[in-house]
Amino acid sequence: MSIAPPAREPAWPLSRSAIGLWVAEGVIESLVLAVGATAFLLFVPSTAGGPVPVLRWSIPVVVVLAAIVFVGVRPWLRFRVHRWEVTGDAVYTLTGWLTRTWTLVPVSRIQTVDVTRGVLQQLFGLASVAVLTASSQGTVRVPHLESDVAHRVADDLARRAEQVRDQAT
Fold first, then answer.
1. Average pLDDT for residues 75-82, to the nearest whole number?
2. What is the pTM of this model?
């Protein structure tokens, strides 16, 4: 049975709490960059030759610009481009900013459904669902759903995949 992808985008965005999680990740990334920039400014003498004088003022500027993107822009863009949907026949995801990746896994191909919660996800009440098939390219990940939604989706998919297997035997 071949399932063609629908002509429309998947219906559901990720949880809005994902924005907070991505902002927190952006703050952490920005702090790591700031520590590196501070170490450079402290340990590399300003009297060193070559490109060091230019780097002493350009590195902090780049770190501030990166922090603005990591905290103020990227989380909102990610929220707008990540979508998912579970239909009667398949699980669909649409991801990516510049390169859009459409992934479809038919319910009949599902072997395992996993729910995972990372440390930051737990702080924000989120979980991710991974739908695995026998194919190395067949895994669909739906990140950053509300924890209860993720568990309901996983239970529903596991139950439907089991019914499909029972019908095939």
1. 95
2. 0.85
